[in-house]
Amino acid sequence: MSFKFTRNKYTKFFDQSRKQKKLSFIKLKNKIRRFPDRLFFSHHFVDERDEGFLEEYRTHQWIDVYFISKKKANIFYSASFVTKSLKLWDELEEEGYQYTENVLTKEQKDLSNDRSFLPDQQNPKYTIMVHNHPEMRDLYHNTWERRVAQKACEKDVHLVDPKNEIKFNHTYGIKLHITLPLDVFTGKDVTEWIEHFYANGEQLDEVGPMEVKTETLFKLGYLKEKDKDLLK
């Protein structure tokens, strides 16, 4: 489901014509009117009012939502929300990636990335990707995965210091990147954040360091049972 009325998907929102921006705004506003108490529209499941909703969809680690500005005419926001736990995990994965890139040889990395595209036996119109050296691909993946788990298990409590961002070079509205100080959140948490954002004159609050417990990473499934041998 797309909202973009621009013919060029790479055209920045504020470079689009007034008509294009207004059409996108109106379409989004009509979407929000379905459930006005939410204050936003999302392609994600939010609650039981969404067709196909299951209870396990109620809580989120991340969600993309869209909501209108009350301060600026025909302007809206495209916001990505993540939890502090996911923010930490992203940082750990980035460190694990850099570690793997440095510790493996160029030959190992080249072999790991060596792949072919073969005809799909079930549907010849399509191709499937196969790794020509699966043992090297496994080496790369396992090195990365193990490093992430090692860093996660080094301490009982981690500090993540996110910076909420607002960007005006997005193709669909004003882009927001928001880290919530929660391990999981619901649609109501997003609505409360938007209400506060409105009350604050549509300005982002400064956020400080957030604590994430390693036991929470296990509870949420980021760390697996096999990783418990790494606990100090």
Secondary structure blueprint with pairings:
Blueprint: H1 18-32, E1 62-68, E2 76-83, H2 84-103, H3 106-112, E3 115-119, E4 127-131, H4 134-152, E5 157-160, E6 165-167, E7 174-180, H5 187-199, E8 210-213, H6 214-219
Helix pairs in contact: 2-4, 3-4
Could you walk me through the main structural features you see in this protein, from its secondary elements to its overall organization?
- By secondary structure, this protein is an alpha+beta fold.
- The chain has two domains: 13-84 and 159-230, no CATH class; 86-152, no CATH class.
- It has six helices and eight strands, in the order αββααββαβββαβα.
- It has helices at 18-32, 84-103, 106-112, 134-152, 187-199, 214-219; strands at 62-68, 76-83, 115-119, 127-131, 157-160, 165-167, 174-180, 210-213.
- The strands form three sheets. Strands 1-2-7-6 form a four-stranded mixed sheet.
- The chain starts with 17 loop residues before the first helix and ends in a 13-residue tail after the last helix.
- The model is unreliable at 1-7 (pLDDT under 50).
Key features?
232 residues; alpha+beta; 2 domains; globular
Summed up:
This protein has 232 residues and is of the alpha+beta class. Helices cover 34% and strands 19% of the residues. The protein has two domains: 13-84 and 159-230, no CATH class; 86-152, no CATH class.
Residue share in β-strands: 15-25%
The level of helicity is 25-40%
* Adjacency order of strands in the biggest sheet: 1-2-7-6
- Radius of gyration (CA) equals 22 Å
Structural class: alpha+beta
Helices, by number, come to: 6
**Total individual domains:** 2
Please, what is the oligomeric state? single chain
**Shape label:** globular
The profile of the biggest β sheet is: 4 strands, mixed
Task: Please report the total strand number as a whole number.
Answer: 8
Poorly predicted ranges:
1-7
Task: Output mean pLDDT.
Answer: 92
Distance between the termini: 47 Å
Order of helices and strands: HEEHHEEHEEEHEH
